């Protein structure tokens, strides 16, 4: 690790683009992003492939820094996770989504479920399920309108995983496994834990028509979810032929630029929620 450390560091710095000269500065700015009102939520539709109707949205955080401009989540989420700021940031996202759901209900818009990305550190908080319960109460939200996306890394080596997931199940919120197929992939957690939805990682979708083994894996994941009574979403659908393949193989839902990119909430309301 030491040996490659320098190269790795330089590579990472150039990857950080023009935005922030270093992580320390980025962290300092991220620390104040909420109070300076620099964070926002975009929503991306997930489409029912049988009906072509909207099934749900995924909430994706956006950070527009007053000094350095737009910073992609791929840059600041890992930093938020390692610095612990993810708790504050994650709470903010959850609260925003709940506020939106409440507002839609009050205004009589069409109710649509929203999925929120949950980092391992957030998930492992002792009071995580209680936090969710409180939010549902405060904003008077039916649990079926909230979905939590966790990754495989949230499920391995956490002794409390079962307890947390069981509590969430009792609350009635949906739980999905994000980036399925890319993690440590012990399939045993699909057996052990009450999971509702599997999201096939976009790297598999990107390789449709390129690699037969890849296609066999996608088909197997779809069949697996079906047999386990779980729902399945394909991520990163960009092309018609990818959608064709997914429909042909009975994938229930799709998400990706083919349908829409993540959009600011006011545009989502206009496009999807008012009749
Ligand atoms: P993810 O959860 O896998 O989210 C999907 C990513 O794919 C999003 O990138 C989305 O904009 C992008 N995407 C959607 N459709 C397509 C497509 O057709 N093609 C391609 N190439 N990409 C597509 P984004 O918004 O930049 O987010 C990147 C990652 O950052 C997310 O990956 C997630 O891991 C993390 N993230 C985003 N928002 C949050 C958040 O509120 N909390 C946490 N903990 N993580 C977040
Ligand atoms: Ca996600
Ligand atoms: Ca994903
Ligand atoms: Ca991802």
Automatic annotation (TrEMBL):
- Domain EAL as annotated: residue spans: 23-275
Tell me where on the tree of life, at the top rank, the source sits: Bacteria
Protein known as: Diguanylate cyclase
